[in-house]
């Protein structure tokens, strides 16, 4: 955004729609009404479970616990991301747009979309890190999540995403590939003379590589920690461990694919089917957490059922982490899996 606001001449040089007429730009677009509506519908239905989940977290006072504070932040980021990957992308596909002639709109939306992705994906890593801290309780790290201190971690995520707003270039959407690209002239013929180097976003690339490495590593550490605690207690794999393994696999899978392939497709041409699949995977990476919460978290599930049925939601305050105590290692303590985040 800094380029658009404070270096406007350079911005106009790099994002120049005068190479072709408006009619020519529109001719390169590929409208796809069914696909556009599919993006919108998927985004809409992925958003539906999230809203009651967040309401339940607030009404039950679960947000007093650090993990649930982070979940609310992640949920807000997921909902905003679904607006981009579902609503905005879907409408662009329906109308068959390319970056030009409305390149300023694309740039601003793409810039905000990248910032939202940065905040949301980093907060997912923070949530996994918090689970590891809750597991082993290292003194200073554990205390850094107590009470209102968690908000400082979330403030860090917000400041980090704001840096993307200021210094990172924006994405632009193009139906030549049905995806968001940093190169505004992606797949447009007759523009081979343009130097594409300035459109490379190293910030986004390094961020995604960090997510690809950090998220599976933290979940692997968490699962191994659960296994070790179960082993040291002389017990077999508990239900909590199985749930965490299931949840970790799907959360990591969708986020990993979204981050890795979206970086890859900026440099290497991919079939349109793959581009479409990446956008859907991005949507699932944002919508899957709410679905998993409803499946594995009894507290949230019971609250959502009560909310839908018009019943009073019971206030609950978690007093233990996901698996720090012997009781949570024991298979008979099935009720404790309500604390799985």
UniProtKB/TrEMBL annotation:
Database matches in Gene3D superfamilies: Rhodopsin 7-helix transmembrane proteins
Transmembrane segments: 35-58, 70-95, 107-129, 150-168, 205-228, 240-262, 290-310
UniProt entry keywords in alphabetical sequence: Membrane, Transmembrane, Transmembrane helix
Keyword Transmembrane helix attributed: yes
Domain of life: Eukaryota
Protein name as it appears in the record: G-protein coupled receptors family 1 profile domain-containing protein
Origin species: Steinernema carpocapsae
């Amino acid at each position: 955004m800094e380029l658009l606001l404070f270096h406007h001449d350079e911005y106009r040089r790099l994002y120049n729609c005068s190479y072709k007429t408006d009619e020519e730009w529109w001719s390169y677009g590929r409208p796809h009404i069914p696909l556009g509506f599919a993006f919108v519908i998927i985004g809409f239905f992925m958003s539906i479970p999230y809203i009651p989940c967040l309401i339940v977290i607030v009404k039950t006072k679960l947000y007093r616990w650090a993990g649930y504070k982070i979940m609310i932040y992640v949920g807000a980021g997921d909902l905003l991301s679904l607006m981009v990957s579902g609503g905005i992308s879907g409408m662009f596909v329906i109308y068959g747009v390319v970056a030009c002639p409305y390149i300023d709109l694309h740039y601003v939306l793409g810039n905000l979309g990248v910032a939202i992705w940065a905040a949301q994906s980093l907060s997912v890593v923070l949530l996994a890190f918090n689970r590891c801290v809750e597991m082993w309780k290292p003194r200073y790290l554990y205390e850094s999540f107590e009470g209102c201190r968690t908000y400082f971690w979330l403030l860090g995520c917000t400041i980090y995403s704001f840096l993307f707003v200021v210094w990172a270039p924006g994405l632009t959407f193009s139906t030549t590939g049905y995806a968001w690209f940093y190169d505004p002239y992606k797949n447009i013929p007759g523009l081979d003379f343009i130097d594409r180097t300035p459109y490379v976003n190293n910030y986004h690339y390094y961020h995604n590589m960090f997510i690809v490495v950090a998220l599976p590593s933290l979940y692997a550490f968490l699962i191994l920690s659960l296994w070790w605690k179960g082993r040291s207690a002389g017990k077999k794999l508990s239900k909590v461990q199985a749930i965490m393994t299931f949840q970790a696999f799907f959360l990591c899978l969708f986020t990993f694919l979204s981050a890795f392939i979206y970086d890859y497709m900026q440099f290497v041409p991919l079939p349109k089917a793959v581009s479409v699949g990446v956008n859907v995977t991005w949507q699932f990476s944002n919508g899957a957490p709410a679905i998993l919460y409803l499946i594995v978290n009894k507290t949230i599930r019971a609250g959502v059922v009560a909310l839908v049925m018009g019943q009073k939601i019971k206030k609950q305050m978690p007093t233990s982490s996901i698996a720090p105590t012997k009781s949570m290692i024991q298979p008979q303590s099935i009720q404790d899996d309500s604390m799985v985040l």
